[in-house]
């Protein structure tokens, strides 16, 4: 048969040997005859003729030889039982050889274009199956070789006994096969000479037909070494031994390069065997199949009702040929059914290379009969295209390979189909044939199905479909893991991981990824799951160190992967278990090289805080106040201002670290401390943190105190902590500098400035002024409320200078409009009472105010240990949270350096009153031209008493209104009319103002007293009037809007009952069209 078709679709020849020949081969240490003949196939350049008189040449023609008794034995076993044993046998072979296969593959560079050992083993086990099947005839014998030797006491009788032996095949096995007689003549040891052997051959031809051959062996042992082809793996017999087979276990292991005892046979013996195999194929088997094809084709054409004259030349050609091949010697048997005969016709045409006839007959079987197994062969015969996938679907449906739990026979048939497609269709990968293997694997969790997925993954990887290949490898690994084959499971997971991490070729400019700062590649959505499964397998197989490394690699930032919180929690839990086990077995040294792939510290947000833990916004306010002081003092000459935000010797300052948890799980960091690089002359102490918990995605500011005993410059280089109280981690507190764009070279590449480091300048200890809030009201303020607070300023004994303080200035921010009542020189001259509040009529910033120490303390100097209280008044000018920022600038005696101290007073302002004012021309112009109407609403939770009302304007007068003391009503008439001539209408008029109805802002809203909802039922064309009473509280224009009208159209049925039909809702006209009632003051 052609080499383009799978080996399993080649003619199956069974061999029956006499006992004397079996003994001869065993004595000479030669393989049995079927194995011996198999070594001389395939045959080269074999020609056959089609029914169209065309000659087809096969470059390589395969024949399958097997023992007749073995085929008879396997036919007796139940199909389902044998299929189940076959799947278990394949799984066992893969399980025992997987470790060696994986080790061999991983020792060399990966070559996905080469057939893998595990797939080769599955393929050979599948193709080596010789069991005849009820639904197809590929394993049905096409020829029977009856072999004996001249070593028998009566060779002719031995041949007669072979011919008379009953063939013990089931009735569904096709009885049409060629009988051929083979006589082996060992010339050196046979009792017959050459002439007698030739006479024996002539007698056999006369008695049993011309299909006979005499094979002479010299057994000289002078041939060169020729490796014999080992037999394909064969299923062992059942454990009960009820079925006997002649399989030789020495040929089952294909991992060895077996050279069978070839030293007995000489070169002439090998040539004799090769000549016999070739003559058997060309002079007997192929002509016999050609004649059967002609005969069956005539019957097929007759059933199809085609003109027989098209085939007359075929009959004339084969009928008048001078072929030396006699007529068929198949035993007499009942004529097969039409569909079975057509199936054998298609199979024989395939053996002969008559692809056109085979395709037509197989397609007829697929359409006209219930034999859907023809669909599996058509993809092998037709031109490869995407349309062939429908045949693959039909073939798997015909195998009843459906559902979650198909039968073993269905799984085995699907496996056979997949092996044939993978082996017989060269362009299978081009037509998306990897999907066919996935369909054939189905939902079965057997080892062969898993390896089908692995082979589909390899095909996808060859054509660059990395995502599909990854998914197939993961699915194969999952099924193999359930079967307990760990080496292959881990190998497939590693392949899937490598494919995930392979960069995907995208038709985009590299500058795009550089601009997006995206260096990720592969498929992050599934890579984590692959690594997690691989890590667990490593842990279960005893590789704790590899498991720890795999688990720690899973801890990526959550914004670069598609996982859920449960995944990260699982990864951390597994990592902790594996790490504890590793440390208990290998010690602390085993984890010294481990490093987290994520960072919890954000070094670019590191801040140095001195005195108070101010925010960045507060720092900007202090900078503005200090800059205002420098501007104020500039006319007096240069000054040195030492900010209180600068660290000083013997004073604690804080290192503020921003810790962010990028994982989707809670983590615990313990034993947090800093690494400080300082000169040897500087001693320092660090306040470490024992434990910090970070929730998922949480960002927390940590403050670690640091005190230096002497001035100088220190560098805070690293932060160290223990991850999960197990793994020591050190993170640098440096971050990359800004990208440079100054020169063309910098713009063309990636150039960055020097890294930023956390460096702290420690100054010598200077003057110190302690400021604290001695008295303040913490309750919320009302909008516009004025309050006072008391600050206490002290020259401390500890930590400060011994010299007294001579001058103290105060600079305050604008929040709260703060003032210092004790420092206002004009307070007694303004005539303002304590409840008055004065505002500056200027946009210029506040100037520093020098405190009158003589007035406040009774002395011009603030001595060591002395203190005084200072009042600050402020106003709740705007709702919300606010801070009053107060900067104290001071200096000590005989010192030109100015020092600072800071004070911050927080307060909360709530809005209690809602005030609305309306103006209109006054009716009485004698007293005033305009009238101002003020409405005050209490929006707070407490009662408010208004004791005084004042205005601020150029010229306003206040006149008490007496109109509100007398509230009157005005009748308003609404007219409703039903314009329908046949329907009754139910109406509901609602005069309550709705919040969603827009009213005119220039009109007063209409408020009605008494009844505000009116319901009426109007007959056809009926009219009614509704009178409502509008409340008039003051003069003005009142807008008649805000009402709504609901109308229901009702119809009477035969029982005089109301049935609601359509519903309409009408609202008042818009603000520009609403009616107006003007009320004047009488």
TrEMBL record:
Top-level lineage group: Eukaryota
Biased composition (Low complexity): 319-338
GO cellular component term, pick one: TRAPPIII protein complex
Protein name: Putative TRAPP complex protein Trs85
PANTHER family the record matches: TRAFFICKING PROTEIN PARTICLE COMPLEX SUBUNIT 8, TRANSPORT PROTEIN TRAPP
Region annotation Disordered: where it falls in the sequence: 317-339
Pfam families per record: TRAPPC-Trs85
Organism of this sequence: Rhizoctonia solani 123E
């Amino acid at each position: 048969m052609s080499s383009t078709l799978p080996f399993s679709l080649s003619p199956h020849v069974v061999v029956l040997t006499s006992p004397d020949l079996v003994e001869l081969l065993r004595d000479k240490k030669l393989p049995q005859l079927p194995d011996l003949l198999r070594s001389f196939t395939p045959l080269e350049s074999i020609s056959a003729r089609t029914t169209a008189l065309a000659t087809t040449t096969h470059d390589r023609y395969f024949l399958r030889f097997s023992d007749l008794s073995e085929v008879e034995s396997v036919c007796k076993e139940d199909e389902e039982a044998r299929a189940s044993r076959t799947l278990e046998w394949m799984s066992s072979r893969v399980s025992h050889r997987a470790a060696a296969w994986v080790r061999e593959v991983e020792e060399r560079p990966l070559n996905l274009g080469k057939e893998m050992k595990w797939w080769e083993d599955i393929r050979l086990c599948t193709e080596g199956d010789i069991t005849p099947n009820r639904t197809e005839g590929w394993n049905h014998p096409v020829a029977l070789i009856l072999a004996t030797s001249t070593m028998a006491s009566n060779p002719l009788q031995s041949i007669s006994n072979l011919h008379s032996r009953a063939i013990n095949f089931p009735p569904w096995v096709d009885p049409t096969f060629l009988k051929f007689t083979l006589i082996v003549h060992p010339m050196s040891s046979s009792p017959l000479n050459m002439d007698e052997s030739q006479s024996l051959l002539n007698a056999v031809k006369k008695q049993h037909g011309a299909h006979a051959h005499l094979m002479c062996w010299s057994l000289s042992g002078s041939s060169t070494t020729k490796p014999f082809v080992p037999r394909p793996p064969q299923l062992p017999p059942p454990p009960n031994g009820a079925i006997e087979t002649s399989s030789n276990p020495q040929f089952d292991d294909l991992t060895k390069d077996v050279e069978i005892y070839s030293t007995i046979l000489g070169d002439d013996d090998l040539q004799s065997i090769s000549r016999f195999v070739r003559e058997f194929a060309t002079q007997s088997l192929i002509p016999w199949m050609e004649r059967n094809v002609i005969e069956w084709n005539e019957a097929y054409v007759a059933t199809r009702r085609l003109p027989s004259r098209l085939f007359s030349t075929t009959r004339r050609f084969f009928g008048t040929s001078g072929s030396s091949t006699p007529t068929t010697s198949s035993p007499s048997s009942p004529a097969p059914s039409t569909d079975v005969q057509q199936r054998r016709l298609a199979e024989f045409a395939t053996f002969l290379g008559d692809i056109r006839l085979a395709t037509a007959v197989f397609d007829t079987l697929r359409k006209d009969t219930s034999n859907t197994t023809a669909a599996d062969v058509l993809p092998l015969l037709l031109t490869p295209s995407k349309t062939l996938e429908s045949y693959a679907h039909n073939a798997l449906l015909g195998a009843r390979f459906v559902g979650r739990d198909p039968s073993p026979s269905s799984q085995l048939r699907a496996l056979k189909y997949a092996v044939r497609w993978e082996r017989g269709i060269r362009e299978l990968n081009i037509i998306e044939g990897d999907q066919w293997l996935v369909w054939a694997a189905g939902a079965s969790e057997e080892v062969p199905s898993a390896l089908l997925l692995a082979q589909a993954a390899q095909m996808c990887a060859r054509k660059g479909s990395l995502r599909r290949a990854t998914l197939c490898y993961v699915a194969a690994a999952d099924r193999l893991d359930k079967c307990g084959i760990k080496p292959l499971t881990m190998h497939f997971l590693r392949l899937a991981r490598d494919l995930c991490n392979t960069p995907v070729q995208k038709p985009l400019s590299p500058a795009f990824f550089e601009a997006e700062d995206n260096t990720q590649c592969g498929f992050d959505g599934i890579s984590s799951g692959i690594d997690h499964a691989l890590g667990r397998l490593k842990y279960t197989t005893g590789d704790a160190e590899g498991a720890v490394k795999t688990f720690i690699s899973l801890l990526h930032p959550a914004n670069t992967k598609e996982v859920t919180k449960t995944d990260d929690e699982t990864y951390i839990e597994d990592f902790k278990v594996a790490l504890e086990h590793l440390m208990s077995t290998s010690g602390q040294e085993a984890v010294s090289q481990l490093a987290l792939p994520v960072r919890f510290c954000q070094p670019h947000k590191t801040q140095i805080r001195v005195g108070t833990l101010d925010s960045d916004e507060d720092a900007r306010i202090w900078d503005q106040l200090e800059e205002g002081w420098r501007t104020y003092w500039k006319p007096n000459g240069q000054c040195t201002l030492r900010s209180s935000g600068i660290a000083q010797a013997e004073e604690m300052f804080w290192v503020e670290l921003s810790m962010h948890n990028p994982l989707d799980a809670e983590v615990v960091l313990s034993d947090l401390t800093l690494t400080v690089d300082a000169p040897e002359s500087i001693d320092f102490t660090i306040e470490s943190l024992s434990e910090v918990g970070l929730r998922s995605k949480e960002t927390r500011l940590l403050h670690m105190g640091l005190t230096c005993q002497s001035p100088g410059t220190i560098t805070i280089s690293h932060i160290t902590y223990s991850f999960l109280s197990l793994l020591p981690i050190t993170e640098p507190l440096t971050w990359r500098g800004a990208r440079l764009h100054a020169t063309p070279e910098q713009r063309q590449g990636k150039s960055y400035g020097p890294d930023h480091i956390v460096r702290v300048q420690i100054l010598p200890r200077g003057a110190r002024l302690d400021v604290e809030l001695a008295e303040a009201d913490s309750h919320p303020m009302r909008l516009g409320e004025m309050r006072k607070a008391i600050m206490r300023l002290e020259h401390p004994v500890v930590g400060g200078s011994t010299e007294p303080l001579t001058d103290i200035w105060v600079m305050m921010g604008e929040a709260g409009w703060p003032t210092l009542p004790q420092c206002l020189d004009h307070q007694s001259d303004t005539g303002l009472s304590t409840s008055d509040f004065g505002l500056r009529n200027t946009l210029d910033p506040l100037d520093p105010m020098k405190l009158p120490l003589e007035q406040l303390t009774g002395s011009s100097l603030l001595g060591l240990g002395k203190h005084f209280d200072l009042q600050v008044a402020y106003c709740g000018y705007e709702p919300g949270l606010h801070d009053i920022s107060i900067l104290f600038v001071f200096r000590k005696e005989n010192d030109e350096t100015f020092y600072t101290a800071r004070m911050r007073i927080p307060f909360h302002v709530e809005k209690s009153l809602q005030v609305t004012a309306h103006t209109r021309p006054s009716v009485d112009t004698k007293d005033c031209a305009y009238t101002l109407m003020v409405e005050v609403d209490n929006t707070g939770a407490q009662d408010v008493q208004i004791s005084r009302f004042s205005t601020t304007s150029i010229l306003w007068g206040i006149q008490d209104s007496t109109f509100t003391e007398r509230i009157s009503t005005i009748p308003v008439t609404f007219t409703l009319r039903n314009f329908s001539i046949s329907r009754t209408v139910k109406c509901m008029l609602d005069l309550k103002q709705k919040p969603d109805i827009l009213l005119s802002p220039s009109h007063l809203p209409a408020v009605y007293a008494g009844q505000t909802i009116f319901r009426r039922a109007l007959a056809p064309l009926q009219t009614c009037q509704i009178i409502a009473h509008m409340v008039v509280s003051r003069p003005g224009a009142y807008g008649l809007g805000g009402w709504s009208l609901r109308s229901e159209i009702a119809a009477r049925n035969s029982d005089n009952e109301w049935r609601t039909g359509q519903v309409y809702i009408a609202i008042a006209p818009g603000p520009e069209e609403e009616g107006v009632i003007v009320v004047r003051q009488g």
